[in-house]
Design goal:
transferase (chains A, B); GNAT_dom (chains A, B); alpha+beta; acyltransferase (chains A, B); 7 strands; Aminopeptidase; four-stranded antiparallel sheet; homodimer
């Protein structure tokens, strides 16, 4: 009973910022983070702490993150702490190269335009019209692209496994991880020595 | 009612290998491991897997451990995976220096002589009459010295915390960790992607 849509005029042009028949086109890139990304990494880490109701444990500042993630004379990527970032843009990313990690590019189609993201401005990166990981991660499961990049890099380097942590009440995440083939290790418990307890223990005479 | 022991003869000499009035004297040293220690590290890791009933997950060989822990062009200690070893000897250790970690020396008195350890020979290191960590760890809680060395190094380097894992049924270990000020994080779950699942996930087209 539905009338067929009329064919578009022969000279029609659909700009990238308009919805295409498949949705809103969006370009993604995964690359190694640099010290210039520390303000974004700090915001993303804090957002995760808010989501996990763990802000009372959140102590990192941009300065401490920079010192930990990008120290002077840092070892090469993937030999120590290494940060990958997922960026989004309504325009294609320029070509870029890195001797340690070839940036990964893909175009996606989202149901909702990235312009609707209320935190777009807060996460605009120095690479142009760009937004990062968590701000849109919940919408389309973009986090899975990052996890895939980590798994691919580990396999490429001959590593035997990839470990990460999840909170036991985050059933959506656990279901997703199990669906991709990960095992949840129910018996392993994290132990943590921090703050005054660390200082006190480090200064006892054993 | 008990008779007092007679005083020792004035010229008595107690060699190091005999029990002293305080027990059996033993010298300990904590130092950075080197690639020469890989056979011992492999045995210690396997012993832990046996204790934890996890030998079905044990895949490491001395060759894979050497490649992972001591790769060519490895970054400096404490910027990536770093192994500290606790050694025991009935004789004092010679002085040694390392620009990244000053070896730590202490003499202890054990209730039982180290010569009684049935695995003494298996863990004899290249540093002489020496035995390592786990073989005697259960006897006198020597593991706590290693944990202390890690905590002291972390505090010295300005790090904010030390994390490790324990199995939830290992009540003795958990009680000990809590006694030293550590928190057990009950909500955090380990996720692991390994073996065929890692290979499969790394090769999908996300």
């Amino acid at each position: 009973m539905a009338a067929a849509a009329p064919p578009p005029p022969a000279d029609s042009h659909i700009p990238l910022s308009e919805p295409t028949p498949c949705g809103h086109e969006l370009f993604t890139r995964i690359r190694l983070a640099t010290v210039e990304d520390v303000p974004h990494i700090h915001k993303l880490t804090h957002q995760l702490a808010v989501f996990e109701s763990l802000t009372h444990l959140f102590q990192a500042t941009p300065a401490t993150l920079a010192a930990t993630l990008f120290p002077p004379n840092a070892p090469p990527p993937f030999t120590s702490v290494t940060v990958l970032l997922l960026e989004l843009s309504t325009l294609p990313f320029p070509p870029s190269e890195n001797p340690h990690f070839t940036p990964w590019h893909k175009s996606l189609h989202l149901d909702l335009p990235i312009d609707d993201d209320p935190e777009k401005e807060a996460f605009r990166s120095n690479a142009g019209d760009v937004n990062e990981d968590v701000t849109v991660g919940g919408r389309k499961g973009l986090g899975k692209l990052l996890l895939w990049a980590v798994a691919e890099q580990a396999a490429k380097m001959g590593y035997g496994r990839v470990d990460w942590v999840v909170l036991d009440w985050n059933v959506n995440a656990i279901t997703f991880y199990e669906g991709m083939g990960a095992k949840i290790l129910p018996e392993l418990r994290f132990c943590r020595l921090t703050g005054e307890a660390l200082e006190a223990y480090a200064h006892v005479n054993p």
